[in-house]
Write a structure and sequence with these properties.
Blueprint (H helix, E strand, L loop, with lengths): L9 H26 L6 H43 L3 E3 L2 E3 L1 H18 L3 H16 L2 H9 L9 E10 L3 H14 L4 E9 L3 E8 L6 H12 L6 E8 L2
Antiparallel strand pairs: 1-2, 3-5, 3-6, 4-5
Helix pairs in contact: 1-2, 1-3, 1-4, 2-3, 3-4, 6-7
């Protein structure tokens, strides 16, 4: 008569080892995230690695390498939804991208573990830890370097606020003044601002612009009776 706890099969032991590897490596990644008080910390990293390992291992158990390949494709796409949950936009700033990328890498660690590739899983874990720790001093050093506007890809916009009935005149005036300052306009847009006013926005085609030149353009525009307010902004490319 068989006992209540049957002896585990070799396949079951192999699954247990895969999950144990995913748990341990996910813990290493999660500890660093937890230490830095990120929104997705220790438990999340471990669960992502465990889940990826479990699904890939299940695919291998059912249909071999072909099944594992299909499961990995679903893991890669599915983890994107989880990563999107930790990304937050606050005004012009976006937070959580690094944490989302770390979760994605945790899934890769779990997938390697579930596919019976523990050494490769260790390599990925070391690379993730190095990226989140060893690169931080380099990032801080780069952030301290003064920005050379000529070396950055930036988008410059000049905006004027005018009465709705003067939108066309304000647009022509804005384009004319910018081109006179040797800043050709790429596109223009008109947006409603309340019931009586509109914002006319001109995007420059120039890669770089000098602040003093744009300040002069804005100051000149604000002297015109058709313009109630003028300003300019710059956004660096991703």
């Amino acid at each position: 008569m068989p006992g209540p706890f049957p002896f585990p099969t070799p396949e079951a032991l192999n699954s247990g080892i895969s999950l144990a590897v995913a748990f341990g490596l996910g813990t290493l990644i999660g500890v660093e995230r937890q230490y830095r008080q990120r929104s997705a910390g220790l438990r999340t990293a471990v669960l992502v690695a465990l889940g990826a390992a479990a699904f890939v291992d299940l695919g291998m158990r059912l249909t071999g390498g072909e099944g594992a390949t299909r499961v990995v494709a679903y893991v890669v796409s599915g983890i994107g939804f989880l990563g999107a949950g930790v990304i937050m936009k606050e005004g012009m700033n976006v937070r959580g991208l690094n944490t989302a990328a770390t979760l994605w890498c945790s899934a890769a660690v779990g997938a390697f573990s579930g596919a019976d590739l523990p050494l490769e899983a260790c390599f990925v874990t070391l690379a993730v830890l190095a990226g989140n720790t060893l690169l931080r001093p380099l990032v801080n050093l780069i952030d301290r370097i003064p920005i050379d506007e000529s070396a950055t890809e930036a988008t410059y916009e000049v905006q004027v606020t005018a009465p709705a009935e003067s939108a066309g005149l304000a647009r022509d005036l804005l384009v004319e003044r910018l081109e006179a300052a040797d800043y050709p306009v790429g596109t223009t847009a008109v947006e409603e601002r309340g019931e009586a006013n509109v914002d006319v926005i001109a995007t420059l085609t120039a890669r770089t612009a000098h602040a003093k030149d744009l300040d002069a353009v804005v100051a000149d525009l604000e002297k015109r009776p058709e313009v109630r307010h003028a300003t300019w902004t710059v956004q660096t490319g991703d």
